[in-house]
Amino acid sequence: MAQDPPAAPPDFVRSAAQGPARFALTGAWTLLASRRLEEKAAELAAQAQEAGGAVFDFSRVARLDTAGAFALNRVRTELAKAGFVGEFAAATPEQQLLLSETLLRGEVRPPPPGENFLFDLLADLGESFVGGLRETAHGVSFLGEFVVTLGALALRPGRFRLTSLVYQMENIAFRAIPIVTLINLSVGAIVAQQGIYELSRFGAASFSVDLIGILVLRELGVLLTSIMIAGRSGSAITAELGSMVMREEIDALRSMGLSPMEVLVAPRILALTLSLPMLTFVADMAALFGGLLVSWGYGGTSPAAFLALLQSAIKVRQFLVGLIKAPFMALVIGLISAQDGFATQGSAESLGRQVTAAVVKSIFMVIILDGLFAIFFTAIDF
Amino acid sequence: MSDSPDIVISARDIVVAFGERRVLDGVSLDVHKGEVLGFVGGSGQGKSVLTRTILGLVRKRSGSIRVFGQDRDAVSAAELRALEQRWGVLFQNGALFSGLTVRQNIQMPMRENRSISQRFMDELAMLKLQLVGLAADAADKFPSELSGGMVKRAALARALALDPELLFLDEPTSGLDPIGAADFDELIGTLQKTLGLTVFMVTHDLDSLYSICDRIAALANGKVIGSGSIAELLASDEPWLRAYFHGVRGERLTGLARRAPG
Question: Which phi-psi region, left, alpha or beta, contains residue B205 (left: φ > 0; alpha: ψ -120 to 50)?
Fold first, then answer.
């Protein structure tokens, strides 16, 4: 049947017989004709109305499908509305069945129109403001639920899922080591190069080691790692939980009397909280090593001299400042990601939106938190 | 015989394997024009795999598939696209696009492949909804707001969007209540009569097999172990077919069918 000659496009011929106008329909009245089908149907309706009623002869119709039958039905309905009679003649039983099946009952409602632009804008603004407040409240209660779950787990450690924790840590920490190392090595090297270049104009190139040490240990190591993990693991958590919501897996857990918070969220957030300090340590070392390499190759400071300078430039607390921040960053990333995952609605689009929102919010919050820590540490003179 | 114009799908010696496991091991099957072919087989025996192979979603190791007389492997990309517009598929779980409303789902194939006005598309979408027995207010709902049965119907409406000549149905009545399932059977019967559809239906629903299938093919152990009218398969001595049609559930229906023939 692929060898069927393509049927002629839909058309009609008006016969000049006496009495009511007679239109012989020809060709294939199918959706394949696309716009031509619509145009011919409109033309037919116009001519039939002009003639004051008509008979439509189906004997020469090559093919008819639901779209064609529907269009012809509409021609007849429009005639009837104008007070004329339209009659279908010589239709085969199949065509008659098709014609009766495709008579549209009820009316066609256009899709709900959008409100006007200004109204939409204001509504969106209000909605996102209220949504933001609601989300904050939700976040706080989510944190509370998490703490309660942790408390319950502390009372009954047997319920804690150690396997899951180890598995998550493998994904979050172990598999992230290469990329975290690479990024921080490059950033350490860049900071060193810029530092040496700018400071050498003042004859203070050796201070670049102070710059690298303090900048990397206090800020860059933990910040870059947190941003990397928010993008890498936070998004994964949102996507996992979100697709579990979509496939009713969360409901299944609940129906078995298991708490998704305990089974899914607690191991993930704990794994994040344990992994991020470790990764931050790796990041610090990588960045310092990058700085060492550039100082050696570009600044001419030997590794031994670099280490000696570094030792005098930084104290343990510089290192601790960075490390202390890490678990808090992890907690923020984990809570935001998990909460956004659970907020997923039924559609794929919504999942995408949630993952985007989770990553953007995590990174934003990580930077805000870093700022708060900076104020705090300055205030306590640490 | 595979060149006969009456054969819509002709599959020959299809082998599909995942790793070492041969799911389809030399399956040959013909689907004739205008018939409703019921395709049965135990769970995990590869019914869906065969459907997906015919649709080109699963790669086969060997064998040939001709659809509408054209060899799937030999046609150009443009011809394949034209071919794919001549069939509609109802996936087992509906596979409606979750980010689009029902109306947009139905209009998607029209919008992509035909150039018609928005008004006509809206009307056609309403018509398809009416054909599959969905209320007009379902049009602007998202798939996640529909019940399981409504998803099936909406997915069928989308499968019918371009008035295909060939319809693939993967377990169309699973998850429907008996009344809904009977309606669905009747609907497919009506569509098949009015549109001259050829229907390839994977099903476990014995009722559907009895009521609308012209011919049945059974798959077991990677091969088609029997095909023919229901009476022929009922008379078969093949152990799996006997278990299938003469098991507790099968016997109940055949008993009913015997009491009330037709």
Answer: beta
With beta carbons less than 8 A apart as the criterion, state whether B199 and B192 touch: yes
User: Candidates 3.10.20.30, 3.30.750.24, 3.40.50.1000, 3.30.70.3270; correct CATH number of A11-101?
Assistant: 3.30.750.24
Chain B residues in contact with A105 by the CB 8 A cut-off are 130
What residues have CB less than 8 Å from A365, skipping those under 6 apart?
Answer: A332, A333, A336
3-state secondary structure of B52: helix
Decide if A97 and B194 are in contact by the 8 Å CB cutoff: yes
Assess if residue B110 is contained within a domain: yes
pLDDT digits (tens, 9 = 90+) for B211-247: 888 888 888 888 888 888 888 888 888 888 888 887 7
> Which chain B residues are closer than 8 Å to A35 by Cβ?
115-117
pLDDT of residue B3: 52
Instruction: Give how many domains chain B has, as a whole number.
Output: 1
How far out from the chain centre does Cα A64 lie?
43
Residues 6+ away with beta carbon under 8 Å from B8 = A1, B31, B32, B33, B67, B68, B165, B166, B198
A38, A71, A346: residue with CB nearest B142: A346
- Quote the ipTM score: 0.78
